[in-house]
Input
Amino acid sequence: MDVTVLVFLSSGLFLGWSLGANDAANIFGTAVGSRMVKFTTAAIVGSIFVVLGATISGGGAAHTLGKLGAVNAMGGAFTAAFAAALTVYWMTKAKLPVSTSQAIVGAIVGWNLFAGARTELNTLTTIMLTWVLCPVLAAITAAVLFKVTSRLLHWAQWHLLTLDTITRNALIVAGAFGAYSLGANNIANVMGVFVPSSPFADIEFVGITLTGVQQLFLLGAIAIAVGIFTYSKRVMMTVGRSLMPLTPVAAWVVVMSHSLVLFLFASEGLEYLLASNGLPTVPLVPVSSSQAVVGAVIGIGLLKGGTQINWTVAGRIASGWIITPIIATAVCVLALFFVQNLFLQTVSKPIEYEVGTSVIERLHEEKFPVQRLQQLEGELFSSAAELSRRLNEINNLTSEQKERVLDLARVLILHVEIDRLNADLSSALSPTQLSALNKLDGQEFEYQWQLEESLARLEPEWRLLEDITLNKHHNKEIQSRLALIEEAFK
Amino acid sequence: MSKSANRRFSPLGGTRKVQNDIDLFFDKVGDATTLFVQLVKQYLDEPDSPERIKNILDQIVDIEKKADELRRGIESYLYEKTLIPDLRSDVLALIEEIDSLLSPQIAVSYALYIEQPDIPKEFHRGFVSLIETAALCVDHLLKGARAFFRDTASVRDHAHKVVFEESQADNLCTELKTQIFSSDLDKVEKIHLRYFLERIDLLANCAEDIADALTIYAIKRMF
Output
């Protein structure tokens, strides 16, 4: 592997290390701090399950972060992760509540601003709503789980020492689940920005294929595990002794609620299961592990009458939802400026936009008032920001209409040359998909959607289904294949 | 069966043995209290049969030794295995305090055996009532202590019964003291009897103090 790749990844790895050092304390803090579980046990279990969670289920939340902004150059990804890490470090030092999730989102928005790329407002709003939803959901889960557990324990009437042994084992199991969920949900914070510019090719190891993204996540998860082993003990002792004076059973309820909520926000499998049973789903977004824990503690506090709750802490968390991303955005923009101009590194690859004839025709088919766009026809824009500015000058365009123009006008010239497909890539496609692609051999497309629509017209197996949760897996599969062939034909 | 054959895997580790030891410890304290009541009644019935008193006294001392051994074993195990870290100090304090109930019983038993006080017949009923009420306090306390380990919600009920019986013991003690000091006995005999009354009443008072502490421990043990 190129050494520069490792240098670029270093900021993500640092972010992973600090995540391991801090967030593992949310999972095992009470158990280790109160000496219910040995630190070594906690560290081994935590590390193994963080790695498993990140590698197996890390894709869902990373996908949402990718929608917020695709940092398309390694230099940019390095700087965004670095800016997030710096924000986390500063805010922790200033004793302000901080979350890696919020910092990385701020940093991605910072990159979007600097590179003139689009920040999908819908995705950003969804992510921010999720931050509020996470502690609320954790509070509700904890309150319900606490009530059920209390009833169960009252009914079981276990001896105090039996309960002690059961609680110890339950804390380890809950911790393992917590570590898995943390890995699955928060790996996107650590490595998500590197996904679009991932330097790794797929590898096969004892019959298991690890995709480039999975290798990236594995590396990030190892950094988290190193963080758990090297630095989390101190934090665990602090968390266990000062922040949460809970009984071991209540601590188990807190860890379980935290883990369930993080899992809910990370698992594509659970999302599908909920949707297929007609139940509501939540967006797969990286959320704050600390806030899930505080939410759960508040939930138990409210159940007990609410007198023990420190509302100042709750208020400080709410302020973090706004302050953290703003600081991270500012730090990222500043850092990108220096990395680009002082260290002469590529922090973003230009993405051009053009409202060409085919775009106008396509919009016309969608009953779009295209006459308003005539003045832009044929003009080349060097970034999404530039096109957005021009769109804003046009009166009476709704934000949805502007988003649609931006969707279609992104230039990506693709030459379909079947010879460019390597054996691996060809084998990733079904025979019918390949045959549809063969029919387009030699053709050139100016926009990504043109190729996608042509393929969909030729072969149902290339067709995206309606954008609902139940179809998410199918669509993601097609989109990843499209991304592979587009990469080959660029 | 060999020792190694006994060491089978158990998901609850060695805690089963400690649970049994704790139960056994409470059994011992209960047994000692029953014997103590028996000893006092024996003395009242046959004050001139010191060998019978000595026999019961030896049984009580033997039980106290066994209870001490159990207490030490429980304490070491809880510390060595760092069990119930949040409640360990409460559990150890509870066991120590309950163990301390044996001291006034042994002290009164020895004093009866050595000092052989003259207790006129008219006070016998009062003495028996007092000692039975004090023993009832210990019984309720032991029930409360057992409940602390399994059924926290009922600790309060048992503790309340201890408090009730203790006030009954206080009343009986005062009543008996009034009767004794208004009798024709010598001043020295009156003071001698008062010593025994106060020692027996002390048993009830100690049980009440432990019951108060137990109520707090139980609140802390609530999930």
Notes: The CA atoms of residues 121 and 160 of chain B lie 33 Å apart.
